Amino acid sequence: METTLVLLILSLVLYHLSISAALHWRRVLYPSALRVKRGTPELLNPSVQRSVEDANLLYEVVWSGLYVEPEKSVLRVADEELASLRSLQPLEVVCEDVLPRTLSDIRRLCHQLEQHRARLSKEDFERTVLTMVYTAQRITQSTEGHQRELWADALLQLYKSIKKDLGAE
């Protein structure tokens, strides 16, 4: 009787663990990417990088000055020539509709990234780097010392997640 009870409890625990693991792997890091309301199918789960040229363009845009306004959903690119490129439309969608904007959302993302065991997808990696850019901008805009520390901690956590992903085998 005792061994039957132990086996039953063990099987229930294993069943619970398998369900928890399955749900964990289905968790989406950026759920708003699946709810973009722009109307075009290509922008469902939008991503900027589709080729090496796109990756180089994203690097150039970030390096030249990419500003994401916290209150308004506005993306500004410092270089007017780069800003006029049609190929930056997905970047606009990602920055305005997908990236987390509040400190609590970014901290929640940091926690999810910390729990994430697999490599980040190309889209999630890109969004995490863009979230780092936004977080760095918010640090410079914060005037209160405590708020500034919280934003800096979030930036550090995002950096650690990127570093962990780059070092993963």
TrEMBL record:
<dbReference type="Pfam" id="PF15173">
    <property type="entry name" value="FAM180"/>
</dbReference>
<dbReference type="InterPro" id="IPR029170">
    <property type="entry name" value="FAM180"/>
</dbReference>
<protein>
    <recommendedName>
        <fullName>Protein FAM180A</fullName>
    </recommendedName>
</protein>
